[in-house]
Design goal:
109 residues, mainly alpha
């Protein structure tokens, strides 16, 4: 992973979510200036920093590091992220019902 790629990705994700550097910094428990330095390619993120950023975006680290340029994939990933946010709020029984519904969609394809 090249630093410039991650800085660009970080900024893109932050802007897609309508977050300022300060808001993202708060979510990540980091200084906004550190977020800015990463976006400007002045600093390389450590592994711990990557974990904090993924948590701040409420996404798995693997998704944070997914550099697929396809906009359809980006929209699909955002939908999946939103679904995950909602699913986490449901109890186990409710999650099982949602899983059954999703499986019915797959059965009809």
């Amino acid at each position: 992973m090249k630093n410039y790629e991650f800085g660009d990705r970080l900024k893109k994700l932050r802007l897609q979510r309508g977050l300022s550097q300060e808001e993202l910094g708060f979510r990540c428990n980091m200084q906004a200036s550190h977020i800015g330095q990463i976006e400007r390619k002045q600093k390389n993120p450590t592994f711990d920093t990557l974990i904090k950023i993924a948590n701040g975006f409420d996404m798995p680290l693997i998704e944070l590091l997914d550099f697929e340029p396809n906009e359809i994939d980006d929209e699909k990933q955002e939908n999946i992220r939103q679904i995950n946010v909602y699913l986490k709020k449901l109890n186990l029984k409710q999650q099982r019902h949602i899983l059954a519904i999703v499986k019915t969609f797959l059965d009809y394809e």
